[in-house]
Amino acid sequence: MAMTRVQSLLLLFTGLLSCCHADSQLQNSSFTSKDQCGIWIGMSTIPGAGIGMYAGKDFRRGDVLLPVGDLIIPIVDLWRRYTNFFLWDEYTWKSHSGFVGSTKMGAKDIDVASPGFGASINSIMDFVNVYEEDTSQYSVPDNLHRLKDPEAGAFTYHHSRMSYADVDIRAGEELFNDYGDQWFTGRVKKLGIIPVTNDHAKAEKLYRSFADKLLSKYEKTKYSSVIHDMWDAFVIDPNNFWKSSVFAALPPKEDYQEMEQLGLHEMKRKKMTRSQEWLEQHALCVDHFVFDKSTIPKAGHGVFASHLLAAETVVLPVPLIHIPDRSVLDMQQPRTMIRKGYKRDYFIRKQLLLNYCLGHAESTMLLSPYGPVFNLINHNQTLANVRLQWALPERSAHNPDMLKKNVSDFTKEFGSRLAMELVTLRDIQPGEEIFLDYGNEWEMAWKKHVATWRPLKGARNYTSAHDMNKRKDRLKTVFEEIDDPYPANLILHFRDEFTHTGPWKNSEKKGHDKFPFDSGISDVTECEILRYEELDGEIVYAAVLASKNDTSKSLLIEQLPREAFEFSDAPYTADTFLHNAFRHDIRIPDEIFPDAWRNLQ
Questions:
Q1: Taking the CB of residue 309, how many other CB atoms lie within 10 A of it?
Q2: Nearest Cα to 453, choosing from 57, 94, 149?
Q3: Are 156 and 72 in contact (CB under 8 A)?
Q4: Which of 26, 311, 574, 582 could link 275 by a cystine bridge, Cβ 3.0 to 4.6 Å?
Q5: Contact 380, 372 (CB under 8 A)
């Protein structure tokens, strides 16, 4: 059975250090060149964990690691369609995890794909050196609107989720993100016991206590072998009955001398560092691009060459997540229908993720790129300047044998073992936008979509929550809404985050001691405006706040400023969920698509 990039964090964690002995003379070197590639992708220092991300130069705490941020792509209500293993589950985040709330994406149950740092980076909690931004930017290009534009809903409006150095990072170090201890402790049955926060410090303390109190006392006595056997049985043996994540943090016995010299944390940090020579030979640079508005009208953003890219040069690794059955991305509308005693759901649209996947007309297989940059590259057949090819195994997690397997075999593959590379077709000048030919079928599907597209009923009255929040108009009372209601897609909320601001703390004098409800994972609570008044030159509001967890609970709070409120799109009303939004996968060229995968011939 193949392993995911995290399954090995315990199973092979104790081999983490020994795997690197052959390259130790390279890993100790550092990078000094000012024009050195900033970020590389190659095989992780964690055995069996797949790809890893590496610093190509020194970063100071707070530095931006890559100028191209992550997109945020929603995956909505997947449980309605597919209950079996879905590989993206190992790489996605819940929308309430910090960088975007469910209500801000216009649905209730959302996982989000964050291709780039969000999906590619590994995690070891005691070695976290990367901080991913809590928010992504939201923008709708060129006044795009569902009333007049067939591009509406065809791409995500959430972008530029940036990643920063959380500590000073040395050139060559592998980058690690904070998955959270619960991510690991909640997967013990699946992944095994994995070290979590502070376990390495505890492990070193345990060993030093053992060495000071027992080894030093009995090392040269007849009890020496007994002491060592006891340590091996209760601590090193992976089958010991303690099942301790602290024990799992200890290195192999052959590394104890180095641990005593450097300390456990510094020793492992050193072992998780690659040399510039290793990176240049076994990894690929992802630092060739900058992010800006696309030159294609209403296409959103794109990526541009940051320097001259020579013809026939590999400029980007494209690691892939396999989706053997493309119908998993069919979204379902739950409708209770009594028919022989069961409920039936109806297909209504396809997930937006489909537009970012690679596929073929003769196969149910989809491949979803999860590395940096690629998902921002736009289509242009005339100006295409890059192409795809299968990756070389020596600088990626790609296993060429997977191209010979049947699609049905991939349902048993629980790890990412496929990868492509992006290759320049010609010299690309600095500042030139990068374009990929999505294929003739995609081109024809888009032209048909534009020719047949018509706005949906009610499009004229639609105003996005984002646009409404930018206006900062005086809020309407419930009585004013009777004659002049807000657009049907909008819901007014009290911002839980406002309770952490200065104005709220100042309002404690007015009796607002604390937010009255347990807001749980959401950052908003629905409310109604009863009245408004002017106070010290500012309009303030009296609002009834309803608990999202218990609709029978409500509370009247007065003298709230405008910043305490925001609008969100009602569930399933945002552009992402438009029934007439364009959906089509990017086509893999026929000449490189495996014959073994053609299960729709």
A1: 20
A2: 149
A3: yes
A4: 26
A5: no
**Beta strands at 93-94 and 314-323: parallel, antiparallel or unpaired:** unpaired
CA pair distance 543, 531, nearest whole angstrom: 7
Instruction: Enumerate residues 6+ apart whose C-beta is below 8 A from 321.
Output: 87, 88, 91, 367, 368, 369, 370, 416
pLDDT-derived band at 258 (thresholds 50, 70, 90) equals very high
Listed in sequence order, the residues at least 6 apart from 93 whose beta carbon sits closer than 8 Å to its beta carbon are 99, 111, 112, 114, 118
Helix (H, G, I), strand (E, B) or coil at 109: coil
**pLDDT tops 70 at residue 341:** no
Rounded-to-integer distance, Cα 319 and Cα 90, Å: 14
Q: How far, in Å, are 314, 428, 457, 565 from residue 305 at the CA level?
A: 13, 7, 41, 41
Which amino acid is residue 142, in one-letter code?
D
Long-range residue pairs from 558-561, CB within 8 A, at least 24 positions apart, any chain: 558/510, 559/507, 559/510, 559/535, 560/494, 560/507, 561/503
Q: Are 117 and 177 in contact (CB under 8 A)?
A: yes
Rounded-to-integer distance, Cα 242 and Cα 236, Å? 11
State both tokens at 343: 């409920």
Cα dihedral angle (597, 397, 158, 304), rounded to 10 degrees?
Answer: -100
d(CA 421, CA 72): 22
Tokens 């170090």 map to which residue? 173
Q: What is the DSSP string of 348-359?
A: EEE-GGGGG-EE
Query: pLDDT higher for 465 or 87?
Result: 465
User: Tokens representing 493?
Assistant: 């909320």
Report the pLDDT averaged over residues 139-154.
92
Amino acid at 18: S
114 vs 47: CA distance, rounded Å: 24
- DSSP secondary-structure letter at 216? H
Which residue has 């109604």 as its token pair? 528
Taking a C-beta distance cutoff of 8 angstroms, is the pair 116, 136 a contact? no
Rounded CA-CA distance 192/185 in Å is 9
Pick from 404, 434, 423: which is nearest to 318 by CA?
Answer: 423
Which secondary structure element, helix H or strand E, spans residue 53, and what is its range?
strand 51-55
Q: Tell me the pTM.
A: 0.84
The dihedral built from the CA positions of residue 449, 451, 454 and 455, taken in this order, carries a sign that is: positive
In this prediction, residue 344 has a pLDDT band, given cuts at 50, 70 and 90, of very low
Q: Give the integer Cα–Cα distance in Å for 103 and 119.
A: 22
